[in-house]
């Protein structure tokens, strides 16, 4: 059996899958290799393109499986480790974890990246106040949905932190780069602050 490999760096969206791998490492002794792959350079070489033809990180190689999309990688790792507390325990938990992962990517990702990539702390693109204001307005709807959902529960799906929580909180970890103001969404703020305090995220950020 070969050791699964995650390609990416902690300073990219690969943090989502590195965080998941670190949760499994802490809980179950999961062994994986992080292949440091910078999104702007190494993703463009032909060897990496055979792993992820999109030329983006993260990607996972596990035996014959090559997988891209951070949240798909995380859902796979959860499924591969049913003994983990992060794994779905039944079809309903699995469906809800898929729902929240797709929801985060469709409802929040574009707007989140628009805001973060143009923020002076990141400055990947020149400022564009009009687009940024539009993106901030777009984020209001999903953040309100999340806030209402969390009004009477501690976690997104179950009575424990599981893969749904990790995928959404990992996406939102980008907000830290720009000190995103979550105070209008106190339930989200409380939930995500607890998620971000998990030692496995700190371990992933140190990679
Ligand atoms: N939806 C993808 C997004 C991956 C992505 O866009 N990663 C960025 C780094 S944060 C990348 O590799 N960019 C390289 C490029 O755009 O050429 C996922 O979540 O895995």
Architecture overview:
This protein has helices at residues 15-28, 46-51, 70-80, 91-107, 109-118, 129-149, 163-172, 186-196, 199-205, and strands at residues 5-8, 33-36, 59-62, 65-68. With 207 residues, it is an alpha+beta fold. The protein folds into two domains: 5-85, Glutaredoxin (3-Layer(aba) Sandwich), CATH 3.40.30; 91-198, Glutathione S-transferase Yfyf (Class Pi), Chain A, domain 2 (Up-down Bundle), CATH 1.20.1050.10. The chain has a four-stranded mixed beta sheet, with helices on one face. Helix 1 (15-28) links the parallel strand 1 and strand 2 (33-36). Helix 1 (15-28) runs antiparallel to helix 7. It is globular. Glutathione (GSH) is lined by residues 12-13, 39, 43, 55-58, 69-70.
Order of helices and strands: EHEHEEHHHHHHH
- Number of DSSP E strands: 4
CATH topology label of the largest domain: Glutathione S-transferase Yfyf (Class Pi), Chain A, domain 2
* Oligomeric grouping of the chains: single chain
Number of helices: 9
Rg on CA atoms, Å = 17 Å
| Chain-averaged pLDDT | 96
> What CATH first level of the largest domain would be assigned?
Mainly Alpha
Number of domains: 2
Largest sheet: 4 strands, mixed
- List unreliable stretches of 5+ residues: none
Separation, N- and C-terminal Cα atoms: 24 Å
Secondary-structure class: alpha+beta
Helix content range: 40-55%
Give me some keywords for this one:
207 residues; Glutaredoxin; Glutathione S-transferase Yfyf (Class Pi), Chain A, domain 2; 4-stranded mixed β-sheet; 9 helices; 4 strands; 52% helix
Short description:
The chain contains nine helices and four strands; from the N terminus they run E-H-E-H-E-E-H-H-H-H-H-H-H.
